Amino acid sequence: MLSIQPYKGARDFYPEDKRIQKYMFNVLRSVVEQYGYEEYDSPVLESLDLYKAKSGQEIVNEQTYNFVDRGGRSVAIRPEMTPSVSRMVAGRRQELAYPARWYSIPNLWRYERPQKGRLREHWQLNVDVFGIESEHAEVELIQIADSIFRTFGASPDQYAIKVNSRKFVDYLFHDFFKLNKESAHKVIKLVDRMHKLETIKFESSLREIIAESKLESVVADEIITILKVKNIEYLPLPVRAHESLISLESLMNHLKNIGITNCFFDISLMRGFDYYTDIVFEVFDTNPENKRSIMGGGRYDGLVGLFGVNPVATVGFGLGDVVLLDFLNTHGLLPKIEVETDVYLIVLGNNFTYASGVASDLRKQGVNVAVDSSGKKVGQLIKNALKKKIPYVIFIGDNEASNKKIVLRRLADNHETEEEVSSASKEILDNKQ
Amino acid sequence: MLSIQPYKGARDFYPEDKRIQKYMFNVLRSVVEQYGYEEYDSPVLESLDLYKAKSGQEIVNEQTYNFVDRGGRSVAIRPEMTPSVSRMVAGRRQELAYPARWYSIPNLWRYERPQKGRLREHWQLNVDVFGIESEHAEVELIQIADSIFRTFGASPDQYAIKVNSRKFVDYLFHDFFKLNKESAHKVIKLVDRMHKLETIKFESSLREIIAESKLESVVADEIITILKVKNIEYLPLPVRAHESLISLESLMNHLKNIGITNCFFDISLMRGFDYYTDIVFEVFDTNPENKRSIMGGGRYDGLVGLFGVNPVATVGFGLGDVVLLDFLNTHGLLPKIEVETDVYLIVLGNNFTYASGVASDLRKQGVNVAVDSSGKKVGQLIKNALKKKIPYVIFIGDNEASNKKIVLRRLADNHETEEEVSSASKEILDNKQ
Fold first, then answer.
1. A328 Cβ partners below 8 Å, 6+ apart?
2. What are the structural domains, with CATH classification, of chain A?
3. Do A69 and B65 touch (CB under 8 A)?
4. d(CA B386, CA B93)
5. Are strands A121-130 and A107-109 parallel, antiparallel or unpaired?
6. Which of B1, B8, B14 to mutate to probe the A interface, most A CBs <10 Å?
7. Is residue B105's pLDDT more than 90?
8. pLDDT at B305
9. Interchain pair A374, B98: CB under 8 A
10. Strand partners, B164
11. Which of A128, A193, B24, B432 has the highest Cβ tally under 10 A?
12. Residues A391, A342: contact at Cβ < 8 Å?
């Protein structure tokens, strides 16, 4: 016997689930289109090479769905969209008009243990702007993220925007603390996971790396101290003056000027992907029940150049549907979502042909009509309409067919009237707005 | 160096391609929702067993993308949606209110040689109604298909709706011509491909099967003759009286009564899938340049029952995006599709902060604004806006920033005015409708 379960870590979307997803995606689309972004898409299968080039190695080796096709090609089900969009921009590097503003809401697959907020299949809004070298790109993308949360009805205390600089992180570990390349990489990976580890575990791992790289143990103490700094102004002076921090402060001032008050410096923000080159940012839920990253992104100026064309300045972010839905649920922000069907038209007796004509007339006027000609008991049929959350029922029996009228019942209060088709459709459409 | 090509047989959707797809999908969604259908979705990966159970064997063996995941499960990238939707209905067999009307527009993958109208990845509208045993289900689904073509602007002479009955086909070859099970299956598969074969090749293959099954060669002649019949009335009398044809005629009369005049009996219509149990139908492009099946479906009452629950009466169809787009292009039915962005806002000098405020105000009023603060030459920036097909440009320089106005240029005729933000947004929105 076949299983009724979907594939592990993936979701079936029954109509009531799909309606919620559609509501979420409609909000996302409307906000990014306000900023002039255009939707694109690409195949869910890509060459595996695309991810080997610049994603974190962990993702390709352990977390990617990949296989060899019948033609001997190594292919992957896309785990992220950034390599695909970079490939597409590279394919039209000369023809495009910059800045090019693009977005997509692809489904992505990662092979990992399903858990709260992390599934094997999820959808992710990807927003990218190509061709802006100035911080105006970062300002715009963070502003879009902020607009998205506000449009969903969130208040600024319900989410925090965290920013950091990969240039600063590189300077800090390579130049300031003098770690060699390998050790710096290990420390960065460790800091990336620091909020998931117990403090004692984090600190002992850090001390191990420092010892391995033959540096004095005081370096580990200094790193631990500096990671606790919450404000750029409180960083020690020689670090404080680095140009990457000047840029970061300028960005934060810019955001303050346009009314974004919940943006904070976070020295521990690393972002998992290796391709980021400068400023990185994330949005976190501030609710202690759901302390997750909901959106993350940054500048990755090098990726398009991997396809043998001139590189192009790029800033982008991704926002996942699973974490977004958790956020909306946690804060009670999901509205009641109406069904698309307006009327359940019940055919009594042998009047299917007349009823079909009435249904066609209603549809022409913009009313969505589901016809039931099953001949079941009326009580059962009304239960069906209620179960489907359809607001109106129309009855058509012998009387209605002969006098060319219909009986309209509003299910909210069982108010029932005999009407012409045109006046019924007016009531239904008025009620919809 | 990484390739800029998408995976073989799959498409990148640049924004201008995606807009066309979105237009098509919006039409499809609006029509099926008029009939009370609700959207659902399911994962793109499914257990391979799902397809082994009831799809044509060719599809599973030769055409399915499948692999073994890291947990040892045999999985497939879905080649069709019918098994998934059957699984989902089975999963809520008791809770659902029938008739349940569901639709989806999934992407599907088949491993085959890419050719005109057939790609490895395509999207397919799937429309299914569960729980209607009467022909009202077939009437409704064919009516929906017809509404879709009419809503795209097609006239009834541009497409033909063909119907046949699998019960009739089974009766014809098993009972009337007395072929054994294996030979009948071979003949049905051959007839399914008959319009792709030369007549002489088709007839010789048929004669071979008849000879193999130890029937007289006159049976082959009779089959060839009967396959030429275009009208139920002209079938030989003993065949003509079979109950499956009575049902088929009743359906065709019903369709005629609701104004569908381009529906024809086609004895050679078989549909590839093994799961159909009764009436089958397809829509064909009548243009000789593009004689393809655009939509196909039928009744498959048995599939939900394979999941260990009570079977449920089901009629469904699929309509692919690649063949639909070919149809719309062949008949010149694709309208000019406007871009979503209304204004290209050009920032002159050091006025990014003021310009950001103007952009925010415009967005609040429903205007979609792309900001350009690149500082490039104005001529180049206007070229960019034209390339992106954005209808308006707004200029904000020192003058505008100091007197709190903007300069609005309509690119269609280069009409330019200095305005308040509110009057500019009014003109832009009026122009949009």
1. A24, A152, A334
2. 15-330 (3.30.930.10), 343-432 (3.40.50.800)
3. yes
4. 54
5. antiparallel
6. B14
7. yes
8. 92
9. yes
10. B280
11. A128
12. yes
Per-residue pLDDT tens for B390-427?
Answer: 999 999 999 999 999 999 999 999 999 999 999 999 99
Query: For chain B, what percentages of helix, strand and coil (3-state, to nearest 5) are there?
Result: 45, 20, 35
CB B38 within 8 A of CB A339: yes
Judged against a pLDDT cut of 60, whether residue B76 lies above it is answered with yes
Q: Kindly list the distances between the CA atom of residue B352 and the CA atoms of A36, A77, B349, B357, B400, in Å, as whole numbers in the listed order.
A: 16, 41, 8, 9, 12
Q: Which of B183, B170, B94, B176 is nearest to B130 (CA)?
A: B94
Of A390, A392, A385, A400, nearest to A355 by C-alpha is A400
Residues of chain A positioned with their CB less than 8 A from the CB of B97: 383-384, 387-388
Give the amino acid at A79.
P
Alpha carbons B101 and B116: distance in angstroms, whole number:
32
Contact B306 A2 (CB under 8 A): yes
Q: Phi and psi dihedrals of A121, rounded to 5?
A: -115, 125
CA-based nearest distance B244→chain A, Å: 21
CA nearest neighbour of B293 among B301, B302, B304, B281 = B281
Alpha-carbon span A82 to A50, nearest angstrom = 10
Confidence of residue B115 (pLDDT cuts 50, 70, 90): confident
The Cβ of residue A264 has, within 10 Å, a number of other Cβ atoms equal to 14
Instruction: State how far the alpha carbon of A268 is from the alpha carbons of A117, A195, A297, B360, in Å.
Output: 21, 9, 15, 32
Percentage with pLDDT > 90 across chain A: 87
Q: Which residues pair with B320 in a beta bridge?
A: B124
Q: Are B189 and B179 in contact (CB under 8 A)?
A: no
Residue B113: closest C-alpha in chain A: A71
For A45, the 3-state DSSP assignment is strand
| B419 token code pair | 């305005």
**pLDDT tens digits along B360-400:** 999 999 999 999 999 999 999 999 999 999 999 999 999 99
* Both tokens assigned to A209: 């790396």
Q: Which amino acid is at B159?
A: Y
Compare CB distances from A41 to B13, B360, B367 and report the shortest one's residue.
Answer: B13
Helices (H), A1-48: 15-34
Cβ–Cβ below 8 Å for B340 and A13? no
